[in-house]
Amino acid sequence: MTDRHTSSPGICLVFPCYNEEEVLPDLLRTLSALDLGIPTRFLFVDDGSTDGTLQLLQAACQSESDHQMAYLSFSRNFGHQVAVSAGLKHAHGDLVAVLDADLQDPPELLNQFIAKWRDGYDVVYGIRTNRKEPWFLRVCYSSFYHFLSKTANIRIPRDAGDFALMDRKVVDVINSLPEHNRFVRGLRGWVGFHQVGVKYARPARHAGKPSYNMKRLSRLALDGLLSFSSAPLRLSAWLGAGAAFLGFCYLVYALSVFISGKDLPEGWTSTVVLILFLGGVQLMVLGILGEYLGRIFDEVKGRPHYVMNECAGWLTEPDTIKE
Known about the structure:
By secondary structure, the chain is an alpha/beta fold.
């Protein structure tokens, strides 16, 4: 077994990018000054950007002379988690790190991550503190991670995003997982191995606008919840049981009024309320089942996760379509 304290592993830093034209020059300058003490490569995954991100990557790749940089681009926007997965699939090296391209994940923090890896950890992930997002988003993030940590069937650390350093054996296992709707931080927790978190103060976005809006964030949260928890299905069962219990209680009430010789209250209000309540429960349960069924439909179609448009740098020329 290799002694991690004396070995000099190669590391590949993966940056998923979507419309990062404004921050990319600052990121490239930061990476040019980065010293991790081990051989380092950079892989940028352009997720179908509509601004000048791809052109900047092309120019940077052509101008460098030490062959540290490579990029691949999608034929359209396939989503952040797919871009992360593509980066993991094409990354070279004994270690692979995933970072956001907006400099909210400080590349220099990787020195601490590598030190933890040398101490025997296979996965070192960042735990976000002092987030700079608006208070409403911070409340949503906190609520989601708290709920997911309570309901998931695996341990998913709270406030841990995709920023992480992984040993090659961990990356190989994640790459072997075939599921289509990917929640990478959940998959990272599912594979196990020896993991540890490192807290860091997450700065504000360095430049540009975030690509994650409320719709995308909601979709990511839904993917994480449905992929690693059966709580929504249990919730639908409890809603059905609750509706049946309320119906039984009303039946007991109606029978007691009838036996006592009193007249039942007449009117359409109670009937409408009952119909709307039961109808709402039924539609909610159907919606939950539909979300799970839709994911099964995505899996059985067997479509590739993404379509590659081009690549350059130290990447060998791949096939156009990749699983």
